[in-house]
Design a protein that fits this description.
Largest sheet of chain A: 7 strands, parallel
Largest interface: A-B, 33 and 33 residues
Shape of chain A: globular
Oligomer: homodimer
Number of strands of chain A: 11
Radius of gyration of chain A: 19 Å
Chain lengths: ~350, ~350
């Protein structure tokens, strides 16, 4: 493997000293970039873009060609796993994802295919290898997965949801069936992320997008327990290096103490949490990633710079902070605003590191 | 005024001793009740139901006729205030609320009518008087309002929103204009709730449904500050009694300490907060209302009873707890499940009070 030329993202995740705070952005490879929209159009469909390694590689690298980012994140979708397990993913234009065969009962759970990532999701692994070659160590590559709980919400609801009535109904009426589904998914997530590590990613991240709709007790039993179980089954020393792992539960700000005990190296924070208070609470155990309000990218230049400076100041001195948004960048954001954000991190953050 | 026969809800809010934990339910007058659906059909439209005191009174009292609830809540809608201020509220069937004249600029804010509740919202005040007469002191009556911030989100977005791009854009680009709008709304909320107190409600509640989409700093400046300002302008000793006030910020579990300093007597909690931890944090200053997961009403009877017992046990011994859901009851819930919940509160809660 090519050694990393810029590894400050990895060092910050492992809470080793850095010269400045690393920065990347959730959904940095995405619709706000005109060059992304061109490739997306060329691909014809979103799924075609995900499943064509040459195109997925191209959009993964686009934000790094434009901005001095400290990490690349593999362009993909969290629903590739349930698709490969037999649920039949469809993206209707403007409607979000739908599954042809959602989970309705115990036999649906038993019928789920055991994931063999190198054959079932070969296109993902090929994209990892292609991106690694083209990156040449310029930046670390992040491989990600949905959390077992978050994948289960889509698989049971049949697509996106606002109320989560079906999966909450299942939780209250047939908790053992939900546990069986989550066990299967924890195994699939572990196999998937292990395959990505073997193919060459430098860090892994688990997106628990819907953990925040749970009560504290439900969160620990149905979301965190399975995110932890997946992690426990992943060998994280690869190619002579430690592969750091990040857990991001949107809406999880009240459960950071439990999350910090789960074995993940870093926690992602959405913008509703005070990153300074979060550090006081858990910063001696884990690194923190976040947490600018994504809508601050609509602010005038000076106000945006102030918001960046405030996040850095709230985190304070020392390593363990990866600058990011608290959620994905919106499609209508001006890319020059992203540049302003990154430059502000470069300008303001060295004062919080080193002898300064 | 008729003295209250059952005032345990009021005593719990004021943290005075009670014999058992009082219980009511957000949206208890609503679509899950067949008798509500009949009156709603008779009314022809949702707005007609809100604006006809005889019908609004009838649906307010329906849940109390069916269940032994400890409070009535006036049937109304939070968007009556902006409607009365000139925004032109419309409910398109199955689409949620829309305003014909949303707030776009400074002249829209200046054009807002100063609210005169007894004339502009006479139908609300008439409903309060009618309900008070018919209740005859059997239970206290709650009058509510949206928080200034929550009202502003609808007024700027023009209706419901998932992303809040317009109001967040306004916040970052023209914060002074948003502050002007919020000042006007704080005044309107104060006038509205003061008029309800004069008409005879026994407690007031402010619904800050969308406070949880803000960052901690934004929450304090744009939501809490104006909820507090409204409260400060309301005389809360009426008819020889103290009128308690409840503040409910959905998604506000991370900001309870700030909320507890705002002058409200009680805080509403959604189901993502551990009510035991919340009590440790703020229970010496305020009462707490909540916080069963509304979807626990889909659970089998025994599981539902266990969930109720767990909430009571987490809060623990002593007064200061009003049992409620963490959000409104869903339209497809079986009313018998609501009965099970209430009976479980009656059965389990006395052990947490008195000498027991």
């Amino acid at each position: 493997m090519t050694p990393l030329i810029n590894d400050c993202f990895i060092r910050a995740l492992l809470r080793q000293p850095v010269e400045r705070t690393p920065v990347w952005m959730m959904r940095q490879a995405g619709r706000y970039l005109p060059e992304y929209r061109r490739v997306r159009e060329q691909a014809g469909s979103f799924m075609n873009l995900c499943t064509t390694p040459e195109l997925a590689c191209e959009v993964t690298l686009q934000p790094l060609a434009r901005f001095p980012l400290d990490a690349a994140i593999l362009f993909s979708d969290i629903l590739t796993i349930p698709d490969a397990m037999g649920l039949g993913l469809e993206f209707a234009e403007g409607e979000g994802p739908r599954f042809r065969n959602p989970i309705r009962n115990a036999s649906d759970v038993r019928r789920l295919r055991v994931l063999d990532p190198e054959s079932d999701l070969r296109y993902v692994m090929d994209t990892v290898r292609l991106v690694r070659d083209r990156l040449g160590g310029r930046a670390p590559l992040i491989g990600f997965s949905g959390s077992p709980w978050t994948l289960a919400t889509y698989m049971v609801e049949g697509g996106s949801s606002r109320e989560f009535r079906k999966i909450k109904g299942l939780m209250y009426q047939e908790p053992q069936l939900l546990h069986a589904l989550l066990s299967t998914l924890a195994e699939a997530v572990a196999l998937y992320l292990s395959a990505k590590i073997a193919a060459g990613v430098d860090a892994i991240m688990v997106f628990d997008t819907w953990g925040g709709v749970l009560s504290p007790d439900q969160y620990e039993r149905f979301s965190l327990a399975y995110a932890k179980r997946a992690l426990d089954r992943i060998g994280r020393n690869a190619h002579g290096k430690r592969i750091p792992a990040i857990l991001f539960t949107k809406g999880g700000g009240q459960w950071l103490e439990a999350m910090a005990e789960s074995g993940y190296d870093a926690l992602g924070l959405d913008w509703t949490t005070d990153i300074g208070k979060a550090r006081e609470l858990v910063g001696h155990k884990v690194a923190l990633q976040g947490n600018l309000d994504p809508q601050a990218l609509y602010a005038p230049r000076d106000a945006l710079r102030t918001e960046v400076a405030q996040i850095l100041a709230r985190y304070g001195r020392g390593t363990g902070h990866v600058f990011n948004l608290g959620h994905g960048v919106a499609p209508d954001v001006d890319p020059e605003q992203v540049r302003t954000m990154i430059e502000a991190v470069h300008e303001f953050s060295p004062a919080f590191h080193g002898a300064g």
